[in-house]
Amino acid sequence: MAEVKPVTAVFPGTFDPFTRGHFSLVMRGIKTFHKVIVAVAGSTSKNTKFSLEERVDMAKRIFEHHPQVEVDSFDGLLVHYVEQSPANVIMRGLRAVSDFEYEFQMALMNRRLDNDIQTVFLMTDYKWMYLSSSIIKDVAVNGGDIKGLVPRQIYDEVIERLVPGK
Amino acid sequence: MAEVKPVTAVFPGTFDPFTRGHFSLVMRGIKTFHKVIVAVAGSTSKNTKFSLEERVDMAKRIFEHHPQVEVDSFDGLLVHYVEQSPANVIMRGLRAVSDFEYEFQMALMNRRLDNDIQTVFLMTDYKWMYLSSSIIKDVAVNGGDIKGLVPRQIYDEVIERLVPGK
Amino acid sequence: MAEVKPVTAVFPGTFDPFTRGHFSLVMRGIKTFHKVIVAVAGSTSKNTKFSLEERVDMAKRIFEHHPQVEVDSFDGLLVHYVEQSPANVIMRGLRAVSDFEYEFQMALMNRRLDNDIQTVFLMTDYKWMYLSSSIIKDVAVNGGDIKGLVPRQIYDEVIERLVPGK
Amino acid sequence: MAEVKPVTAVFPGTFDPFTRGHFSLVMRGIKTFHKVIVAVAGSTSKNTKFSLEERVDMAKRIFEHHPQVEVDSFDGLLVHYVEQSPANVIMRGLRAVSDFEYEFQMALMNRRLDNDIQTVFLMTDYKWMYLSSSIIKDVAVNGGDIKGLVPRQIYDEVIERLVPGK
Amino acid sequence: MAEVKPVTAVFPGTFDPFTRGHFSLVMRGIKTFHKVIVAVAGSTSKNTKFSLEERVDMAKRIFEHHPQVEVDSFDGLLVHYVEQSPANVIMRGLRAVSDFEYEFQMALMNRRLDNDIQTVFLMTDYKWMYLSSSIIKDVAVNGGDIKGLVPRQIYDEVIERLVPGK
Amino acid sequence: MAEVKPVTAVFPGTFDPFTRGHFSLVMRGIKTFHKVIVAVAGSTSKNTKFSLEERVDMAKRIFEHHPQVEVDSFDGLLVHYVEQSPANVIMRGLRAVSDFEYEFQMALMNRRLDNDIQTVFLMTDYKWMYLSSSIIKDVAVNGGDIKGLVPRQIYDEVIERLVPGK
């Protein structure tokens, strides 16, 4: 039987910080593909609370015991990064209609830039459908309890950064 | 190196008739997964123009020269069919917001019925974003030209059924 | 100066019955174009409360004193009707997102059938944003007051048909 | 202190059958209002699996131990029913965008019929965001497991009706 | 008869400035609940044209003759403010789909922070469906007429601030 | 025959830079109206990559050989500009749902400011449905190929500004 080439998907994002919604998507990703590369975006128009190194380091600790998950970082165009990686699939999460439209636009532009890279959408668990990095930062900065909304491995450092001295 | 298990996705639908939009999704599917099973739904609340046998036969002729594509049919719950197939992924196409909501509801129900089956969405080519089996039937029945909207292998029989004697 | 060709737009619909929302769109249409042809659809999958003749007759009485408005009927494909009319514009009303998606699909298919016919969308007055022929029939049949929701010229006959003997 | 008039809300629906999503909305309703009247719609264009009497009886058993909840039935226009009830609020559930548009249209028409009746929307628990009576019937009829999707008091009779002899 | 506890709803917002849309929502709120607390948000990421004191003062003057309406201000998390107020209901206005998604996300996060606080949505009058504080500021700053878009009690000071010397 | 007054539409935008999507809309505009005025917005909250003069100059070169197209610029309110122009129609492009809502709000506000100015929406070609000035700038700045996404007359200067020295 011809040797089966593993399917690798890139899961790109700013991950500022990494949330339980992101984590649930990666878990569904490794049930769908052989390998998922969590690709942390370096250049982003958003001013982030955590540096690129910190965001990469947090992701590595979260997936320490998941051999199907790799963590990397990239700058510039996502499509250029995927082209020089072993992947030919971009994996994105869908939560609601407004996600859909933005993702649709990005996926069609990426397809124009490289028609051989497929964008595939997975749905977050409904438990995390309202969750985003920005709403977590908003709640934490205003004294709200974000326990359980970020993976436990990074909870303390996220609180320390967002609510110094808490 | 541990033997890599091929990734198989089920692409379910009524396919009454099969459109160029469906075809473009399957082509993107086999660039993403090792194998795609086109699963033609037997039991459907819609009264179809083509019988189940005809719809299965048309799909088989369309993908005759595509070894990565299998054609099958199923009755009852999609999730039950996938459970006894080699696949653990359901592949669906997304065209617009209204698709999104219906698909979201179905995917969450399927996930409740079997949390190990992942629903994955791909986007049709923008050329076919307006295309659906029902709009093709509507146009053909009213004397419109549907050339190029269904795969050429089945154009004559689709016209013959929708516009007898044309 | 070269002679200016008047711009004519076709405003197609089932108009079962004609509503104040339809009327407000036609009024905005004749402020935009030189002439508007209200084209009443003969063949429709919906079973209508009023026959084609009745719907055409009602529209004619409503626009009796509006020289910029013509009333006609058509069967089969809208695009075929427009092609043999003096118009090259199809005028449609937009009320909400779900309208938008259906209209988007129809407009792209019509554009595929004849790229020289432009579909143009106008917005109903916000007063009529919730109004549709079907919600009017629903309310009237259940004894609700639809005064002011259909043009006064046709109020009596609409009530007589929907709530016989009222 | 002037005597406080209790706030009563009418929660209308076909409830064919009553789902856990409906139940979670009523529970949130009685935390918001003093009393909730579950008003089962008699006249409906949908052909129901359960008669009006059966649907009323099921709702009564579900809320047997909830003094803040009353069960009633109505025919004709919802607004006319609310006008002769102690309520001046209509309570509706929102799950997703497509709900939103339909509800928006109904609420604006109801407001036109009686500006003193307020329509108020509550959000279902995210656990039930994909749930509807029709998707439950669809799954059950096709042999799927709907345990936990309808209140336990009515599970047996719902299964018996949808999958006779199971 | 057991003493009826009045239902109080908190209507939070930046109100920069207060609009006729906001006013119409509060009017519908006091037809639904016994008391509405207009809670002006202190901490906001948006840089406001009016200080917190000015926004609170304007709201107080607008509702001077409405005993069912109280005006207050809050900082930090809305849920924390509601918890120490007599209210257990958050009242929000819905205008269109994009509102819906943002509100949905906020309401689900608030529910996670305190499951006993219910978020309830009312619909603005269709007259104000296009109105927002930002579009009013945009129009006024560019010399447009905003008469009738803000309550008359605050029109002069809003114009004076947005178009000094007009 | 009474002399026919030509129909002129204003097509307003920031055009930073002008895209093939904008171009395709203007081409459909001159098939619908006698004349289209491309009105480049001076005052805009967005910080643009090209000055107003550069944006006007680029548009003029693009439509050099199109006598039905005029290029102008305006400051302040669009409605005020249209009122002193020969046009009584504002022409806007619709790509997706999120466009729709923003456009809906703007059109209703413009209608409030001047009920005699009609806003009319045309749909971009599906080829450009994902295209916007901002996504083009984003891709170009990150080294992506934007050939064919802006009219060829302005490609070199757009690249020179976005990727100096390329």
- Give the second-level CATH assignment, the architecture of chain A: 3-Layer(aba) Sandwich
- According to CATH, the homologous superfamily of chain A is HUPs
Output the CATH topology of chain A: Rossmann fold
Mean pLDDT of chain A: 93
Pattern of helices and strands of chain A: EHEHEHEHEHH
Give a quick summary of the entry:
With 166 residues, the first copy, chain A, is an alpha/beta fold.
Task: Describe the fold and architecture.
The structure is a homohexamer of 166-residue chains. Chain A has 166 residues and is of the alpha/beta class. Chain A has one domain: 3-Layer(aba) Sandwich (Rossmann fold). The first copy, chain A, is built from 6 helices and 5 strands; from the N terminus they run βαβαβαβαβαα. A 5-stranded parallel beta sheet of chain A has the order 3-2-1-4-5, sandwiched between helices. The longest helix of chain A is centred in the middle third of the chain and has 17 residues. Chain A is globular. The interface between A and D is small, with 5 and 5 residues. Chains A, B, C, D, E, F: Pathway: Cofactor biosynthesis; coenzyme A biosynthesis; CoA from (R)-pantothenate: step 4/5. Chains A, B, C, D, E, F: Keywords: ATP-binding, Coenzyme A biosynthesis, Cytoplasm, Magnesium, Nucleotide-binding, Nucleotidyltransferase, Transferase. Chains A, B, C, D, E, F: One of its GO terms (cellular component) is cytoplasm. Chains A, B, C, D, E, F: InterPro entries: Cyt_trans-like (IPR004821), PPAT (IPR001980), Rossmann-like_a/b/a_fold (IPR014729). Chains A, B, C, D, E, F: It is found in: Cytoplasm.
